[in-house]
Prior knowledge:
By secondary structure, this protein is mainly α. Helix content is 46%, strand content 7%. The chain is built from 7 helices and 3 strands, in the order H-H-E-H-E-H-E-H-H-H. The chain has helices at 22-32, 37-47, 59-71, 88-101, 116-123, 127-130, 132-140, and strands at 53-54, 78-81, 105-108. The protein has a 3-stranded parallel sheet, with no helix packed on it. Strand 1 (53-54), helix 3 and strand 2 form a beta-alpha-beta unit. Helix 2 (37-47) packs across helix 3 (59-71). The termini are far apart. The relative contact order is 0.11.
Amino acid sequence: xxxxxxxxxxxxxxxxxLPITQEDLGQINAYLTPLTPEEILKWAVExxxxxxxxxxxxxxxxxAIDMLSKxxxxxxxxxxxxxxxxxxxxxxxxxEVKRRYGVPVTVYTPAGCSSVQEFEQKHGERLWERDxxxxxxxxxxxxxxxxxxxxxx
Length: 153
């Protein structure tokens, strides 16, 4: 059985200076490709300033949250795009993750809507069936949101 040597990381500063050049990005991708998910997340925590995790609190998102909590004592904050149509169990899981992992969760809802009733009054019922592209844009893209990347010490 052949033993493979793990690739050596590109010679880059920790944390990375943004923006990343195409050349550096190519080196990073080549380095990360053969790594395990845990190794990729560990690299991200070490190299990416102002790291956030987006999640819909599905299986893969929660697994990543758990992995990150084992990699660092200060896991990245979470971003949850609340379409207002999640199952009640999803909202319960959001609260459980906050309690268990102590990680901040920023919740974004469709602009100008904080409930299904407000959303349907503004956009009509079952928009996802009538115009899926518009629905996806409305519930997942926030042109009015301000995204701030915290500075690193």
